[in-house]
Specification:
The protein is mainly beta. Helices cover about 5% and strands about 45% of the residues. The strands form 2 sheets. The protein has a 6-stranded mixed beta sheet with strand order 1-4-10-9-6-7, with no helix packed on it. The longest helix has 9 residues.
Length: about 120
């Protein structure tokens, strides 16, 4: 008769690879005041997806779209849209945004991309 823990492990093993994520973990970066942020987009993520800027001021954001679909990167503070790139396929677009201390959301506003994981956070200290 098999031992109970062997049965338990054997019963769990087939589910070890199951889960809601796609196996990718986002990356965090910290930037100096007046710095530049480069973000890569694909289906359906931003890299990096967590950004900290050390001081308020202007930030240049460049979005590089490496996906097969159109993407954009819009910056929100609460429900208010601050700025961002237009939607585009392949290549890159840049924008400059003036940031005050606080927390912002980075979002792809095309279709259901936000719900599919194209989100990030930007914190200004």
């Amino acid at each position: 008769m098999p031992r109970p823990w062997v049965v338990l492990v054997a019963g769990i093993a087939p589910f070890a690879g199951c889960g809601g994520g796609d196996g990718r973990e986002g990356r965090a970066v910290t930037l100096p005041a007046g710095g530049a942020l480069s973000v890569t987009a694909d289906e359906y993520s931003f890299e990096p997806d967590r950004v900290t800027v050390r001081k308020p001021g202007e930030l240049r954001i460049t979005l590089r779209n490496e996906g097969s679909l159109a993407h954009d990167l819009r910056v929100f503070r609460g429900d208010r849209e601050v700025d961002g790139t237009p939607p585009f396929e392949k290549g890159e677009r840049s924008t400059r945004v003036r940031l005050t201390p606080g927390r912002y959301r980075l979002v792809c506003t095309i279709g259901d991309h936000e719900k599919l994981g194209m989100v990030g956070t930007l914190t200004v200290r």
